[in-house]
Amino acid sequence: KACLQCDRRIRLLHEDLVLSAPTVADQIEMKKICDHAYVTYRETSLERNGVIPTTLYRARTEYQSEFDEAIQIMEKGRKILEKHLDAFIHDLCPNMLLNQMVMDCFSCRYRIYICPSPTGQQDCGYPLQAEEGGQAVLDCFLPWHRLLFGKPEYSYSWAPGLVVTDDSSVILNQLHMDEQGIYRCSLQEAGTIFYQITFLLN
């Protein structure tokens, strides 16, 4: 869970804004506005799970570039954060369990967070066509796999075989008719399955 107010550069921007107010009373009012903006940023982040540092970086960069309209930008900051959080979430497969390093919304410190699958662990199935004597490529890589904290491995299984590899793909060569059937790939580490997919080879 990451919040825009966790970024030191954003906090310094806001502190400079507060100090630029002409009177102490104005500074107090400006600080109240900043504090309220932090509350809205925190709420926006808490509605979403497992935000990676690149999301925070993109939100911060866009926020900084838009910081000319002082008070209005506070609310715009929440919308910028929301946009980047939603874009990240949209790219994730619903069949996943993401173990990653995230920014904690309240402490503004990094920690390991396990983001559960929104729909629960399920098998995604994909049909795969190949010709006898040809080859088939089983590849279960997705871009978010790079975000996993640790060193998970891909496990390919079928009756009666099993392959464990660092590579996301397995190539089946010189196929025979009796090799058609169900092949399963899972991405796991120390018994924890982060992602799994089934290939239906015909």
UniProtKB/TrEMBL annotation:
GO cellular component terms, A-Z: acrosomal membrane; plasma membrane
PROSITE patterns given in the database record: IG_LIKE
Pfam families noted in UniProt: Izumo-Ig
Domain Ig-like: 116-198
Transmembrane annotation, as ranges: none
A single MF term (Gene Ontology): protein binding involved in heterotypic cell-cell adhesion
InterPro entries: Ig-like_dom, Izumo-Ig, IZUMO1
PANTHER family in the cross-refs: IZUMO SPERM-EGG FUSION PROTEIN 1 (PTHR35540)
Descriptive protein name: Ig-like domain-containing protein
